[in-house]
Design brief:
Blueprint (H helix, E strand, L loop, with lengths): L1 H14 L3 H13 L4 H18 L2 H11 L15 E5 L4 E5 L5 E4 L1 H17 L3 E4 L3 H13 L6 E3 L5 H14 L4 E7 H13 L3 E7 L17 H26 L5
Parallel strand pairs: 1-4, 1-6, 4-5, 6-7
Antiparallel strand pairs: 2-3
Helix pairs in contact: 2-3, 4-9, 7-8, 8-9
Length: 255
């Protein structure tokens, strides 16, 4: 399982921007002497796609494709019985400023911050789900930094599929049939499908919403690191959704 997880991470790093386009451009440089026409195609495609993915205009268009849910309407949360916060976004196993205790990374901390807010407003119990040290960092960060103690800690999930199935087993054993699901907005569509397929009702509570609107400006065509990160995340979710559908249709998913 760890091998598959590392392979998945490696492929994500190699195929998505910036590495994917750079590797394509590098292939073009290698082929210049032998296949000049193919080399030029690779160079233009690699450099061009990296530039486009780095522009706020293209990044916003990609994000719009994967952000399927609006912000949570707390009025809809009244019939939910629990809150689930998904892992993801990294953590530090030993944070010196917290006495070498685990600490959630910036992206994961954004999920925890919003989940803690929803928990305090609704009074609902929390479940956190991740893998080993990630789940521990989530628990410790919530209790230490936000004064919220999770009722359940699920620490055996390598991916969103296992987040859903492992969490639903715990929740159903406690009589929970409807949850508020907290994760990043770009990840929400895939997460909602996985939890519903696992057999539980879901109220989406996306955080980190990046969808932009308004008029197009000159700055929307200027590359930026933030735009590249958004585009890369959106492309990953598009690929993840396609893979989820494929695996479900082929009955290759672990049950």
């Amino acid at each position: 399982m760890m091998f598959l997880l590392r392979l998945k991470t490696l492929l994500r790093c190699l195929l998505l921007p910036p590495a994917g386009p750079l590797l394509l451009a590098g292939l073009g440089l290698v082929l210049l002497g032998k296949r000049p026409r193919l080399a030029r195609v690779c160079l233009v495609a690699g450099v061009g796609s990296l530039w486009l993915c780095s522009t706020p205009l293209v990044a916003a268009a990609l994000v719009k494709l994967v952000e399927a849910y609006p912000a949570l309407d707390l009025a809809r949360a009244t019939q939910a019985q629990a809150i689930v916060i998904l892992g993801g976004g990294g953590q530090r196993a030993q944070a010196p400023e917290y006495g070498m205790a685990p600490m959630a990374g910036p992206e994961l901390l954004e999920r925890l911050s919003y989940g803690a807010y929803v928990a305090k407003v609704t009074g609902l119990p929390l479940l956190v789900t991740g893998f080993h040290i990630e789940a521990t960092a989530m628990h410790d960060s919530l209790s230490r930094n936000f004064g919220v103690e999770p009722r359940w800690v699920e620490d055996q999930a390598y991916d969103t599929f296992e987040n859903a199935h492992n969490s639903v087993r715990l929740l159903k054993a406690a009589g929970v049939r409807r949850i508020i699901l907290v994760t990043h907005s770009m990840h929400m569509n895939r997460a909602v499908h996985e939890f519903r397929d696992a057999g539980i009702e879901v109220v989406p509570a996306p955080t980190g919403m990046r969808r932009a609107g308004g008029r197009i400006r000159i700055g929307d065509f200027v590359p930026s690191p933030d735009a590249l990160a958004s585009a890369s995340g959106a492309l990953y979710e598009l690929a993840g959704n396609a893979m989820r559908v494929l695996l479900a249709a082929s009955h290759l998913r672990r049950q």
